[in-house]
Write a structure and sequence with these properties.
78 residues; alpha+beta; four-stranded mixed sheet; 2 helices; 41% strand; elongated
Amino acid sequence: MAPRYKFVELSTVTDETLEQAVNEWVARGWELDDIRFVVTEHSRRPAMAFVSFKRADAAATDADSAPQVIAAPDNDVE
């Protein structure tokens, strides 16, 4: 069976948002595949991250297919 992939976009990249995304989707049966960071030329800190997961089965639920964007509270420093 071909693997299924899941991509999660993080609009705010911190250790907490990465940890939350990985723990949430691994608990749902997905395996961490990769993390890609988007950086700007003005800052070394990532502006966004895309976290990819995969699994072998095709048993996805409606919750798995909902778009996921994790944002930090408004008072965070960019």
